[in-house]
């Protein structure tokens, strides 16, 4: 049923494009474009997993790492080119927090009691914590003066390089293991698409995502203004949830089927991947888009990241899941979202 709805929802992409051509208002464009990104993100995930099934673990892991976060990456780069650095940083930090609190929270709430992969969980949490510490290097100077100054972008470059090196060294096997576990859940489905079809769907879905993402970014400021929300809140909460919606739903469905260990791994590995792969990748690629993006995260963002990581460490310290722990994480996300709403724009 869910898959059928997602397939039908792909029609929202041409609807968003048509609305833009006919001069629809920015509020309408934002809502339709945001809704259109959800099935596109799901389709990209489907195509990358089918491709990985044929190419083997090594190349498949590279394809998944490259394209699994394509919607968020494309949104971020368009926001950079539109001169919206706060939107970029907000959507990326919001994605990490959303995975740690919202996705993991719903996974535990739906999955109930069970054993977690404690070692894998703490590797992911350690990666997020390491990224937060490195973000302080360009962020702290940005709290005084212009946070978008070029010197901070320059300082952010080696930080990004270190994070990418850490990602390659530490998470390659974990990512490959996660994808293999996920693929093994539905072997018949994975064998249904040929490699050529998988790559063709991947290319087409990524291209359409780029068009829809540009519509979304172009309408975000007007939508935020009309809704009485800050650009930062829209990016850190709404855009972050939309960009991860398909994977979020996948983790919850896996948990509801009783596979709580895999669901928790999806949520935690995704948060680590955004922190040590997607954020530095956006920073490095922003040099080609112009202007380059400083990783000058605000105190409220870093505090939320650190607090979310610490809370998950405390709740998962014994390697056990429960519905109560899930509800605590969901409540914490609601508190963070409220805090972001109160923080407003810088």
Task: Explain what the structure shows.
The protein is mainly α and 346 residues long. The protein has one domain (2-343): A middle domain of Talin 1 (Up-down Bundle), CATH 1.20.1420. Helix content is 84%, strand content 1%. It contains 14 helices and 2 strands, in the order H-H-H-H-H-H-E-H-H-H-H-H-H-H-E-H. The chain has a two-stranded antiparallel sheet.
Topology:
Layout: H1 2-9, H2 12-21, H3 26-55, H4 57-67, H5 70-81, H6 85-111, E1 114-115, H7 118-142, H8 150-184, H9 187-190, H10 195-227, H11 231-256, H12 260-289, H13 299-315, E2 320-321, H14 323-343
Antiparallel strand pairs: 1-2
Helix pairs in contact: 2-3, 2-10, 3-4, 3-10, 3-11, 4-8, 5-6, 5-10, 5-12, 6-11, 6-12, 6-13, 6-14, 7-8, 7-12, 7-13, 8-12, 10-11, 11-12, 11-14, 13-14
Name the descriptors:
A middle domain of Talin 1, 346 residues, 14 helices, single chain
Low-confidence stretches: 181-190
**Rg of Cα set:** 19 Å
Number of helices: 14
Main-sheet strand order equals 1-2
What is the CATH topology descriptor? A middle domain of Talin 1
CATH homolog superfamily: NCX, central ion-binding region
Helix and strand run = HHHHHHEHHHHHHHEH
Determine and state the CATH class: Mainly Alpha
Biggest beta sheet attributes: 2 strands, antiparallel
Work out the number of β strands.
2
The CATH architecture designation is: Up-down Bundle
On the 0 to 100 scale, the average pLDDT is 84
Coarse morphology: globular
Category from helices, strands and their pairing: mainly alpha
The tally of domains stands at 1
Roughly what fraction of the amino acids lie in strands? under 5%
- N- to C-terminal distance: 43 Å
Proportion of residues in helical segments: over 70%
